[in-house]
Every structure is written in structure tokens, then in C-alpha cells.
Specification:
Number of helices: 24
CATH superfamily of one domain: EreA-like (biosynthetic domain)
Radius of gyration: 28 Å
CATH class of one domain: Alpha Beta
Oligomer: single chain
Distance between the termini: 44 Å
Strand content: 15-25%
CATH topology of one domain: EreA/ChaN-like  fold
CATH architecture of one domain: 3-Layer(aba) Sandwich
Shape: elongated
Number of strands: 20
Structural class: alpha/beta
């Protein structure tokens, strides 16, 4: 366990600090030494080395590691310095500074936090830190002047008292601004009555409460001048939002016709278990297939599972001996009434169409290695028995792990399994080359795509045990490449609808995924390749219920979605919905009002719920910072939503045979 903690601490230093430009060796050494897990609540220790703030009680947080490092670096703290920290919190920043400076004074106005920090630092042996429970907005004049002052709370302006407690040449680092977003300022004292100021970028901090800061209700003193009030962001959103009718109204899907000329339209979801997200995407898909010539429906599912639906909607027979699709966790993602209705309608739309005009249903994801191996061998047994024999030899090293490929990932880290990669990649290349050269139809394409999945999955399950961004990037690169192959195979006029989570289809460069963790996704990769031929449509909600599990491979539960946070895009949309556009609306982010785009471009939190939902740690496990108008071209809002129903809880749709494709 200790080695795991040290590894995660080192990964934090390398990935979130050094990789983002923190160069001072003293700062990096301090972050390697100080155990952040000791400064957070026990139930949040698993998130200690994520690059995000965490709650510590009394309405306060321990700041994001990168921001702490950036503030220390901006203050130019050095050996021999005496430093004041205002807003000591858990004592983590003071502990880090104590590894560099000679003496640290940290003021925390919440006595329980100050007392806990004092005990914690004593236990760790950091004896050059003094924790004081007091109002820190006026500094600590009895110990002044200071070489550096760091303030971990926002104020409406820089307190004069703090500026005057700096030595000449010293630096004061403080967030200044309003409630939503502040700018991080560095004040340098250049003379007895002279200070220079520089802007270090946008940040978000708790308020600086005290005589020289804000009152308890977060407002400034009445004597402080306030600029004229401008429209709130919620008001701007309400003015720009286009109300949407009920999803089953034909006018709902028609509202998205503005994107019908795109080659790829990606439809997101803020959770994997919300009925409205599925129903909305299904309505748009029906219309685009029927009226706008879209022939590819590509989803965040595995190729062999989706192939069963593809054969059904294309009026093809089931593949003999094929395993029933979508039997692995989380089954409700695709075994649900909305999908049953959709595939029934797609089958009807395909009736009488030529093969070239038929819509197909394809899986982009990477997990079902066993199903893909079985599909490759089934095709080769029929078309080329000798090739099937060679393929079995190539796949032999994977055979023990097919039912649980994650086990392969652990074993593959040891010597002796690397040869699997060469074998499966060779099999993939041969089938893909043949499929593209010969154009022998759906059977060969299916086998080729399954071979690609095996090759990607082999590498994915191997690298996932190294951690970091590599496994995520491999998975999304596989999905992007699969989509590109589909567009190529279906011809130059082919157009695709993509169903995937917001975290996959929203441009990763506009979120913490890309900016902090170095991750890309299918939305970014396809947007980089096709430019304006792509539309990225995100979805969101404020509250309601959701189908999700508490742990991986756990039971489906209907969980209550916690109302959105005050500092999130979701809360802005919730407040906007009360001002006019109603409970559901479409927000055009690509062609909308410039003032709205500018205001929306201030980073905010955005909620991401996958197949796991843990409301008790929602801020730290389900929110990430994003820039909405750079992430999506449009945003679809449903103020209150309900859980996606699992298919097994209902009778199948009357128009779909019970044994095919789901095998109920």
C-alpha cells in the first residue's frame, strides 16, 4: 500500500506539476516529500493525488496541487525566507512551504481546522510552522515584514494591510474577483509606497472572510464601490436557449436538422443511465436515417455485440452459435426499451432499401475481446479453414484470458507475453488489407473489424496496469479509427451518427482531461481530422434519477441525482430554465451570441456520471472543469430526468422476435 501511495504521489508530481511547467526543484521535492493523503478526510484519500480540490470541513477545501505549486513558484520562496499564509486550512500548503522557507506562519479563521492542522504538522515533525486561529484578512503585523504572503481565499480587492506587510522585493499572491471566477494576482513591493501587479490566470477560490475581506454572507462592505450590474450568465443563456417540445413530438428531432449536412454528428450523454438522453438520441437518429441519408449509427459498445443488432436491422440471419449480445456489465446501457424501439424502427426503415442505402449499427469500443476472437474464427472457418488454423495459433496466447481480459493485463507485465501483440496485430493487418482490397462485403468487414478490436484490446488490457492517460487514449484512438474505417467502407457519401458519453464526444482539449491529464478523445480526434464536417452535441441535466451501479460489475440501482453544484454549467442551465425557455432546450454554442460565448468560456465545473455513480463523493468523482463552448457545438438541456429502465424488467417490444437479437 505504501509503495502504491508513493507511486501515485510521484505520478502527481510528474503529470500535474512538472509536465505543466513547474520547474523549481525545491517545489517538486517538497511535493514528493509531503504526504497529501494525511491532509484530507479518510473517505477521500483515494483522490488525494488527483489534481483537484477536496473538502476538509467547515465549508473549506484543500486546494488543487497545481494551483498550490503555481502560487508557491510565483511567490519566489527561497531558503531563509519568512512566509505568511492566509487561509491555512488543513495545513498542506504550509507544510510544503516549510520544506523550502525557514519560517512559516499560517492563519486559519476556523478554529477546528487550525487545531487539526497544528496536531497534524506536529505529528509529521514540521516544527518550523506556526498555526494561528484568527482573522487573516489583515495579516499578522506583529511578525511582519514577510518575504512572501500567499492568500488561499478570494477577495474583492487586495487588502492594503497585506500589501504593507511585505518586505520591499517581496511577493503577495492572492485571488481577486467575484464569486464565479477570479484572477490570480502577484503583487510585488518595489518601494515604500510602490507595488507592481501581474495577472497569473483564472482561478476559483473560497471567499476571504474578515475585516479586510468579505462579510459572512459573501458581500463587500457597503462603502466599496460596485460597478453597474450586468446581466447574469443564466439570463444570457435563457435569452439564447431554444425551447424544445416533448421528445416524441416530431418537432423535437427536427430542431436538429441544422446539423444534417455534417458528415459526422456526435450525440453525447451526461450519464449512461438517463432515459431522456437515450430517447432524444433515438428520435434524432430515426429522423436523420429516414430523411437525411445517415447510414452509420456508431455507438459506445463493442463491435461483436453491436453486430447482432446490425444483422437484425439489416434483415440478415443471426450468426449460428454466436453468443447473445450485451450480457456483460453494464447490461442496461444497450439492453433497454429505448434501444428495442429504435432497432425495430431502423429495421422497418431498412426494409426495401439497397444494401448501400441501409443503415448499419456498429460498435466502436474495445472491451469484448472474447466475442471478437470468436467472430474472426467463425468467419475464417467458413471462408478459409487454413487461415482459421493460423489465426487460432496466433490467438493461442490470449485464450486463457478471453473471459476476463483484465487478468491478461496483469500477466502481460511480466516477461513472455509481449509476443501476443505482434501476433494479433499481424492477424488484424491481414484481414483489414483484404477487406479494403477485395471489398467482399459485410462478412469480411465484420471479421476485419473484430480483428482490429482484438489487437487494440490486447494492448489496452496490458497498458491499463501502468495507469495514467495511455489506456484512455488507446481506447478513444481505437474508437476514432473504427469510425474512420466505417466511413471509408461505406463510401464517400456516408454520414455517421455517434452515440457516446460527453467525456468521449466533447473535445477533450476544452476539459481537464486534455488540459491537465493529457488525454484525448474521439470528439477531439475526429474534429481534428474532419473540422467543420463534425458537430459535437452534449447533453446535461440538473437532477432526477439515474440507473447506475455503486461499483464496477455491481447491480443496477436507481439512484437520486444530487442537484447540480452552484459553480457548475448545470446550475447555470437550471437557473436559465426558470427564466423562460422551459425545462428542456437547445443551446447553439457554435453560432450563438458572442457575448454569451465569451461568458460561457470562463471555466466551470461540469458533471460526468458513467456506469458508476457515488453521490457521497460527487464533487471529486463526477465533476471536472470544462469550457463548454469549446467542448461542444451544441448543448441539449433536460432540467429533470429519470432513470433508464432495464430491458429485463419489461416484456420485449411486440414487433421484435423474442429470440433475436437479444435472445430474451
Amino acid at each position: 500500500m505504501e509503495q502504491d501511495v508513493l507511486s501515485r504521489r510521484e505520478a502527481m508530481v510528474e503529470r500535474h506539476l512538472a509536465a505543466r511547467g513547474i520547474r523549481d526543484p525545491g517545489i517538486l521535492a517538497a511535493f514528493r516529500e509531503v504526504p497529501r493523503e494525511d491532509f484530507v478526510p479518510e473517505n477521500l484519500r483515494e483522490f488525494a493525488y488527483d489534481d483537484g480540490p477536496l473538502p476538509i470541513g467547515e465549508g473549506q477545501t484543500i486546494s488543487q496541487p497545481y494551483i498550490v505549486a503555481a502560487m508557491i513558484e510565483a511567490a519566489e520562496i527561497a531558503r531563509g525566507d519568512v512566509v505568511l499564509e492566509v487561509g491555512g486550512g488543513s495545513g498542506y500548503a504550509a507544510a510544503l512551504i516549510s520544506r523550502i522557507a525557514d519560517r512559516v506562519f499560517a492563519i486559519e479563521r476556523h478554529k477546528p481546522l487550525a487545531d487539526a492542522a497544528e496536531l497534524r504538522l506536529a505529528r509529521l515533525g514540521y516544527d518550523n510552522v506556526t498555526i494561528i486561529a484568527a482573522d487573516g484578512s489583515g495579516g499578522l503585523p506583529d511578525e511582519a515584514p514577510f518575504d512572501a504572503i500567499l492568500v488561499a481565499a478570494r477577495g474583492p480587492e487586495v487588502p492594503e494591510a497585506l500589501k504593507r506587510q511585505l518586505k520591499v522585493g517581496g511577493h503577495l499572491v492572492i485571488p481577486v474577483g467575484g464569486e464565479d471566477v477570479q484572477k490570480l494576482c502577484r503583487i510585488t513591493r518595489t518601494g515604500e509606497d510602490r507595488w507592481d501587479s501581474s495577472d497569473l490566470g483564472a482561478v476559483r477560490f473560497v471567499p476571504l472572510i474578515g475585516t479586510h475581506g468579505l462579510s459572512e454572507d459573501g458581500t463587500r462592505a457597503a462603502s466599496v464601490h460596485r460597478p453597474a450590474v450586468e446581466k447574469t450568465l443564466a439570463e444570457l443563456v435563457a435569452e439564447a436557449a431554444e425551447p424544445l417540445p416533448e421528445i416524441d413530438d416530431p418537432a423535437f428531432a427536427a430542431a436538429f436538422d441544422r446539423y444534417a449536412d455534417k458528415r459526422v454528428v456526435m450525440l453525447g450523454e451526461a450519464s449512461h443511465g438517463t432515459h431522456e438522453f437515450y430517447a432524444a438520441r433515438a428520435a434524432i437518429t430515426r429522423r436523420f436515417v429516414e430523411h437525411h441519408g445517415f447510414t452509420i449509427v456508431a455507438v459506445e459498445a463493442d463491435w461483436p455485440d453491436a453486430a447482432a443488432i446490425d444483422r437484425y436491422i439489416g434483415h440478415g440471419p443471426p450468426r449460428p452459435g454466436a453468443p447473445k449480445p450485451f450480457r456483460r456489465f453494464p447490461t442496461w446501457m444497450w439492453r433497454n426499451p429505448v434501444i428495442v424501439e429504435l432497432i425495430h424502427d431502423l429495421r422497418a426503415l431498412n426494409d426495401g432499401r439497397t444494401d448501400e442505402a441501409k443503415a448499419g449499427f456498429y460498435g466502436l469500443d474495445i472491451y469484448n475481446m472474447a466475442g471478437s476472437i470468436e467472430a474472426v474464427l467463425a468467419y475464417l472457418d467458413k471462408s478459409d479453414p487454413e487461415a482459421a488454423r493460423v489465426a487460432r495459433e496466433r490467438y493461442a496466447c490470449l485464450t486463457p484470458w478471453q473471459t476476463d481480459p483484465s487478468v491478461y493485463g496483469r500477466v502481460a507485465l511480466s516477461t513472455g507475453y509481449a509476443e501476443c501483440e505482434a501476433a494479433v496485430v499481424k492477424q488484424c493487418r491481414e484481414l483489414l488489407d483484404q477487406a479494403l482490397a477485395d471489398g467482399e462485403g459485410a462478412g469480411l468487414l465484420d471479421a476485419a473489424m473484430n480483428a482490429r478490436l482484438v489487437a487494440s484490446a490486447e494492448k489496452y488490457y496490458r497498458v491499463m496496469y501502468y495507469g495514467g492517460a495511455e489506456s484512455w487514449n488507446l481506447r478513444d484512438a481505437h474508437m476514432a479509427e473504427t469510425l474512420e474505417r466505417l466511413l471509408e467502407a461505406r463510401g464517400p457519401q456516408a454520414k455517421a451518427l455517434v452515440w457516446a458519453h460527453n467525456s468521449h464526444i466533447g473535445d477533450a482539449r476544452a476539459t481537464d482531461m486534455g488540459a491537465v491529464r493529457g488525454e484525448h478523445n474521439i470528439g477531439q480526434l475526429i474534429r481534428e481530422k474532419l473540422g467543420d464536417e463534425v458537430a459535437l452535441v452534449g447533453f446535461g441535466t440538473h437532477t432526477g434519477t439515474v440507473s447506475a451501479a455503486s461499483d464496477w460489475d455491481g447491480e443496477r440501482e436507481v439512484k437520486r441525482v444530487v442537484p447540480s453544484r452552484r459553480d457548475s454549467y448545470e446550475r447555470v442551465c437550471h437557473e436559465a430554465s426558470d427564466l423562460g425557455p422551459g425545462r428542456s432546450f437547445l443551446l447553439d454554442l457554435a453560432g450563438g451570441d458572442a457575448a454569451l460565448r465569451r461568458r460561457l468560456a470562463e471555466p466551470r465545473l461540469e458533471r460526468f456520471i458513467g456506469v458508476i455513480y457515488r453521490p457521497e463523493t460527487e464533487r471529486w468523482s463526477h465533476y471536472s472543469e470544462a469550457v463548454l463552448p469549446e467542448q461542444f457545438d451544441a448543448y441539449v438541456w433536460f432540467d429533470e430526468t429519470r432513470a433508464l429502465e432495464a430491458l429485463d424488467a419489461r416484456q420485449p417490444h411486440a414487433g421484435v422476435p423474442e429470440t433475436y437479437p437479444f435472445g430474451l
